C-alpha cells in the first residue's frame, strides 16, 4: 500500500492535500450509495422525488460535516508543524498557540516546554562560554605573571642584569598583571634621604612622577613605610578619609601600596594599580604583587651584598694582583706611616699603550692574555715591601714604601724597558708598550688623593709626549 501511495506521489505531499484527497475518497461511498438507492428504489417510483432529494442532501451534509471535523483536527497539527519548523531554524522565542485540551494541545504544550528548555540551555551555554573566555583570559594573565616571576628569579640568581634593568623589569611585569596597569618604585638616593620615583611604568601625565615621600613625613605613604603595613584601595574596599584624599589628589582609582624593606632598613615603597573603573583586587592578585615586592627586595639586597663583597675583595680575578680598593687603602696607610716616621713613599701608575686598538683587532682572549703577561712583568720588578695592583682595564699601580721619587722613576723605567725588550707578543717589533706616571710623598702631596692625582697627571703627560715613556 505504501508503495502504491509513493507511486501516486501522495507520500511527499502536505497534510492539506492528503486531507482533501481523503475527503474525496470518503465522499465517494455515500454518493455511490445515494445513486444506488435512487436507481433501485426511487427511479421506479417517480412520485418519490422529494425523498430522493432528501437522501442526497443528507449524504452531502454528512460529507461536509466530516470535512469540517477533519479540518478541525488537522489544521492545528499543520500550524504546529509550521511553528516547529520555525523554532527548529533557531527562533526559540516563539511559542505554539494551544487552543484545546486534547492530544494535539498536549503535544503543543510539550513542544513549548521543550523549546523553553532548549533556550534556557543555550543561554546557559552562552554564559558558560563567556565565563570560560574570561577564565581563559585570567589564566593567561596568571601564567604570564608566573612566567615573569620565574624570569626575574632566574635573572636574580644568575646576576646577569644590572640592578636598574632588573627593577624596571619587575615593576613593568607587576603592573601588567592588571588591565590599564601602572607601577612606581620609590627608592632613596644612595640609601638615605627622601624617597623618589626611581622606576616608573605607564604613569605618564600623572603626579606620581614628581611625588616625593619624606622619610620622616606624616603623609600616608610615609607612615605605610615606617609601619611596614600594606594598603589596598579598590571598589571592594572601604578606604579611610585620608586614603580617599590621597587617591583623589593623584586622580588614582585602584592601588596597592607595599613597603620594601630589609631587616631594619626601609628601602622604598612599591605602588601598583589599575586605571580601570570599578576594579577589585583579588586575593591572588595581592599575593602575586607581594611576590614581586619580595623579588625587588632580594634584588636590592643582592646588589648591596655584591657591592659590599667588592669592597671587601682585595685581589683582581684575572691577574691575581691587588685591586683598586685595596691599593688605595694601603696607599693611605703608607702615607700616614711615612709622615709619622718622616720616610719617603712613592706611587706609580702604568698604562698600556694602544691597548684598545690591540683588543679590537686581536679579540678579547688575546687582550686578557696580554694583561696577564703585563701584570707578571710589573710584579717581578716591584720591591719586597711594594704592592702592585690592577686599577682597571689596562691600568696598573705600584705602591713603593721607603722609595723616593728618583728610585721610583728608576723602577718605572725598568718596567718600561723590560716590557719593550721582552716583546710580550713575540711578533717582530714590540706592539704593546707602557707609560708611567710617578708621584712621591711629601713632595707631590700629603694625602692619598693628592698623590694619585699627580701620578695621573704625569701619566697623561707621558701619553701626550709620544707614549712608551715615564714622567
How would you portray this structure in words?
The chain has 471 residues and is an alpha+beta fold. The chain folds into three domains: 2-88, no CATH class; 161-308, Beta-Lactamase; 324-464, Alpha-Beta Plaits. The protein contains 13 helices and nine strands. A five-stranded antiparallel sheet has the order 2-1-5-4-3, with helices on both faces. It has a four-stranded antiparallel sheet with strand order 7-8-6-9, with helices on both faces. Strand 7 and strand 8 form a beta hairpin. The N and C termini lie far apart (128 Å). The model is unreliable at 4-12 (pLDDT under 50).
State the main characteristics:
Alpha-Beta Plaits; Beta-Lactamase; alpha+beta; 57% helix; four-stranded antiparallel sheet; 471 residues; 13 helices
Q: Which radius of gyration do the C-alpha atoms yield?
A: 50 Å
How far apart lie the N and C ends?
128 Å
H/E element sequence: HHHHHEEHEHEEHHEHHEEHEH
Into how many domains do the coordinates divide?
3
Query: What's the count of strands?
Result: 9
**How large is the share of residues in beta strands?**
5-15%
CATH topology value of the largest domain: Beta-Lactamase
The CATH architecture of the largest domain: 2-Layer Sandwich
Across the major sheet, the strand order is 2-1-5-4-3
Which ranges are low-confidence, i.e. pLDDT below 50, for 5 or more consecutive residues?
Answer: 4-12
Query: What's the tally of helices?
Result: 13
Shape estimate? elongated
CATH class annotation of the largest domain: Alpha Beta
Superfamily at the CATH H level of the largest domain? GAF domain
Amino acid at each position: 500500500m505504501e508503495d502504491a501511495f509513493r507511486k501516486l506521489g501522495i507520500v511527499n505531499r502536505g497534510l492539506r492535500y492528503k486531507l482533501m484527497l481523503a475527503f474525496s475518497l470518503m465522499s465517494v461511498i455515500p454518493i455511490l450509495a445515494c445513486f444506488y438507492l435512487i436507481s433501485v428504489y426511487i427511479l421506479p417510483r417517480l412520485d418519490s422525488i422529494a425523498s430522493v432529494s432528501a437522501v442526497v442532501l443528507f449524504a452531502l451534509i454528512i460529507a461536509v460535516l466530516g470535512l469540517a471535523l477533519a479540518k478541525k483536527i488537522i489544521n492545528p497539527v499543520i500550524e504546529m508543524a509550521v511553528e516547529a519548523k520555525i523554532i527548529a531554524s533557531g527562533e526559540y522565542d516563539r511559542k505554539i498557540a494551544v487552543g484545546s485540551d486534547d492530544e494535539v494541545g498536549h503535544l503543543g504544550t510539550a513542544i513549548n516546554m521543550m523549546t523553553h528548555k532548549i533556550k534556557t540551555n543555550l543561554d546557559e551555554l552562552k554564559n558558560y562560554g563567556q565565563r570560560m573566555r574570561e577564565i581563559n583570559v585570567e589564566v593567561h594573565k596568571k601564567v604570564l605573571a608566573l612566567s615573569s616571576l620565574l624570569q626575574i628569579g632566574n635573572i636574580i640568581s644568575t646576576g646577569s642584569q644590572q640592578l636598574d634593568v632588573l627593577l624596571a623589569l619587575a615593576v613593568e611585569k607587576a603592573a601588567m598583571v592588571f588591565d590599564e596597569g601602572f607601577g612606581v618604585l620609590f627608592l632613596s638616593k644612595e640609601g638615605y634621604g627622601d624617597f623618589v620615583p626611581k622606576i616608573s611604568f605607564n604613569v605618564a601625565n600623572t603626579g606620581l612622577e614628581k611625588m616625593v615621600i619624606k622619610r620622616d613625613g606624616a603623609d600616608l605613604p610615609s607612615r605605610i613605610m615606617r609601619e611596614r603595613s600594606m594598603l589596598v584601595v579598590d571598589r571592594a574596599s572601604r578606604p579611610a578619609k585620608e586614603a580617599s584624599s590621597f587617591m583623589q589628589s593623584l586622580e588614582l582609582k585602584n592601588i596597592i601600596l607595599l613597603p620594601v624593606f630589609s631587616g631594619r632598613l626601609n628601602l622604598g615603597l612599591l605602588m601598583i594599580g589599575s586605571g580601570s573603573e570599578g576594579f577589585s583586587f583579588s586575593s591572588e592578585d595581592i599575593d602575586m604583587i607581594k611576590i614581586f615586592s619580595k623579588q625587588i627586595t632580594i634584588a636590592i639586597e643582592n646588589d648591596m651584598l655584591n657591592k659590599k663583597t667588592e669592597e671587601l675583595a682585595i685581589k683582581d680575578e684575572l691577574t691575581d694582583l691587588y685591586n683598586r680598593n685595596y691599593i688605595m687603602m694601603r696607599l693611605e696607610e703608607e702615607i700616614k706611616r711615612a709622615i709619622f716616621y718622616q720616610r719617603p713613599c712613592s706611587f706609580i701608575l702604568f698604562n698600556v699603550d694602544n691597548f684598545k686598538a690591540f683588543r679590537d683587532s686581536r679579540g678579547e682572549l688575546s687582550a686578557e692574555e696580554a694583561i696577564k703577561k703585563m701584570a707578571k712583568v710589573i710584579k717581578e720588578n716591584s720591591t719586597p715591601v711594594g704592592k702592585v695592583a690592577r686599577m682597571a682595564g689596562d691600568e696598573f699601580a705600584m705602591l713603593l714604601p721607603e722609595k723616593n721619587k728618583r728610585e721610583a722613576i728608576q723602577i718605572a723605567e725598568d718596567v718600561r724597558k723590560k716590557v719593550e725588550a721582552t716583546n710580550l707578543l713575540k711578533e717582530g717589533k714590540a706592539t704593546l708598550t707602557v707609560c708611567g706616571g710617578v708621584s712621591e710623598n711629601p713632595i707631590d702631596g700629603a694625602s692619598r688623593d693628592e698623590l694619585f692625582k699627580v701620578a695621573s697627571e704625569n701619566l697623561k703627560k707621558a701619553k701626550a709626549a709620544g707614549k712608551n715613556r715615564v714622567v
